[in-house]
Amino acid sequence: MRFEEWEPIYQEILDDFGFGRERDEEAACLLSALLAGRQTQEVLLRSRLEGRSATIFGNAPSLPGELQALIEGRDLDGRALVAADGAAAVLLDRGLIPDAIVTDLDGDVPAIIAACQRGAVVVVHAHGDNMDRLREFLPRLPLVVGTAQSAPVPPLHNFGGFTDGDRCVFMALAMGCRDIRLVGFDLDDPSVTPRKKKKLDWARRLIARAGLSSDGP
């Protein structure tokens, strides 16, 4: 998704949550500066995803059981593995290294760092509330692609998406994945806060816009 397509949706999200664009733009500039002089990993990321079937893992409470069933059924063989934030820890516990992790660094950061050090490309997202985490953790991530919530500042991208899970979907589509399956996505979780529910509602809308269902392929 080009930013010109994403921007009206982004503005609607800002209005819905009462967010300001200025902090997102500040975070994008910060991540751009932190990546200056580093080799970002767009080519590696695309080489892992382009033309491949992909399974995207959300971090719902159902994920461990769903993942175990897929492993036992050999349903992950040959597929690219993309983890949304804390889902990376669940994959690591099963001995799986994601091809890519999409995160704003508010989940299980030690697991994300461990996976990155073992070869996972981390697609790090900048928004107005995570600038301190960008400063703290980016130096510990050797394989990084940067993304922004607002207009992307080189070398950042904006593939579209709002939550880690739906950003995984838009990133995978931009990288040329096909036959995308979603695992560990529970967008009807009744235990979440009203604010989180609103985020999950947006995730559902955006996943549907991408042509997928949060209930599976």
From the structure above, extract its key features:
217 residues, alpha/beta, 6-stranded parallel beta sheet, 9 helices, globular
Care to describe what's here?
The chain is an alpha/beta fold and 217 residues long. It has one domain (3-209). It is 45% helix and 14% strand. It is built from 9 helices and 6 strands. A 6-stranded parallel sheet has the order 5-4-3-2-1-6, sandwiched between helices. Helix 6 (109-117) links the parallel strand 3 (100-103) and strand 4 (121-126). Helix 8 (164-174) packs parallel to helix 9 (194-209). The chain is globular, with a radius of gyration of 16 Å. The model has no long low-confidence stretch (mean pLDDT 96).
Number of strands: 6
What's the tally of helices? 9
Mean pLDDT: 96
End-to-end Cα distance: 20 Å
Placed side by side, the strands forming the largest sheet appear as 5-4-3-2-1-6
Helix-strand topology string: HHHEHEHEHEHEHEH
Biggest sheet record: 6 strands, parallel
Low-confidence stretches: none
Number of domains: 1
Structural class: alpha/beta
Radius of gyration: 16 Å
Proportion of residues in β-strands: 5-15%
Large-scale geometry? globular
Percent range of helical residues: 40-55%
Q: Mind sketching the topology for me?
A:
Elements: H1 3-17, H2 21-35, H3 42-49, E1 53-57, H4 63-72, E2 80-84, H5 87-93, E3 100-103, H6 109-117, E4 121-126, H7 131-137, E5 144-148, H8 164-174, E6 178-183, H9 194-209
Parallel strand pairs: 1-2, 1-6, 2-3, 3-4, 4-5
What is the structure about, briefly put?
With 217 residues, the chain is α/β, with parallel strands linked by helices. It has helices at 3-17, 21-35, 42-49, 63-72, 87-93, 109-117, 131-137, 164-174, 194-209; strands at residues 53-57, 80-84, 100-103, 121-126, 144-148, 178-183.
